[in-house]
Design the sequence.
């Protein structure tokens, strides 16, 4: 169930959760009981207020590991892994702080409990800041990748345009060469070969230039206002 604090007749019972991990599906509970005399006991971390402090130190340690992972992350997948682990941790830290706030109100003279409440707030604040930083870094990584893809697409489009331009420019030459290269009598066999070849090439290049000017789109001038 939800993390909470229950009080009755001077007794205080904290029902808390272990720090959640990314691979864990369900939460694991921890119980901390304070007697009216101020003695603390827990079901898994021993006795004394130190058990509650050790519980909070586990949250601190996990957040510190995630901060290091966030600093080392470079790709969107790495940032997503940090966020995936951080979201349940942030939610658990928020409920942990609320439970300790209720416990602090029920035991206003317990200074070490107040310190634990303050530490829980620091855990919540650190997880909130880290989550915000990770999301911003993830958005930046995605935007950067999208910009790189757009740049590559523009380069591919420019390469395709140059290729189409070359094809359009040399298409008439290739067509004429194919036509006059066939063994068909066309009356030019007896004309001086170098002169005939030069005229064919020049004619093909001229038609290619005209076709190039026709195929390439003219840039549209920017409109003001």
Sequence:
């Amino acid at each position: 169930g939800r993390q909470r604090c229950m009080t009755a007749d001077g007794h205080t019972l904290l029902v808390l959760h272990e720090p959640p991990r990314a691979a864990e599906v369900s939460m694991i509970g921890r119980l901390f009981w304070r007697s009216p005399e101020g003695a603390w006991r827990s079901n898994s971390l021993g006795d004394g207020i130190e058990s509650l402090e050790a519980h909070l130190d586990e949250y601190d340690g996990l957040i510190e590991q995630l901060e290091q992972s966030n600093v080392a992350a470079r790709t969107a997948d790495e940032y997503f892994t940090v966020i995936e682990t951080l979201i349940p941790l942030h939610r658990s830290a928020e409920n942990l702080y609320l439970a300790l706030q209720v416990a602090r109100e029920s035991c206003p003279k317990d200074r070490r409990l107040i310190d634990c409440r303050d530490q829980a707030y620091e855990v919540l604040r650190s997880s909130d800041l880290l989550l915000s930083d990770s999301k911003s870094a993830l958005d930046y990584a995605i935007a950067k990748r999208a910009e790189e893809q757009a740049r590559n697409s523009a380069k591919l489009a420019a390469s395709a345009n140059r290729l189409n331009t070359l094809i359009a420019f040399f298409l008439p030459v290739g067509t004429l060469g194919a036509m006059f290269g066939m063994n068909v009598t066309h009356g030019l066999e007896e004309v001086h070969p170098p002169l005939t070849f030069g005229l064919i090439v020049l004619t093909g290049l001229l038609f290619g230039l005209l076709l190039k000017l026709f195929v390439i789109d003219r840039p549209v001038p920017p409109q003001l206002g």
Remarks:
- DSSP finds four helices and four strands in the chain.
- Residues 220-225 have pLDDT under 50 and may be disordered.
- The helical segments are 49-72, 76-106, 111-180, 193-215.
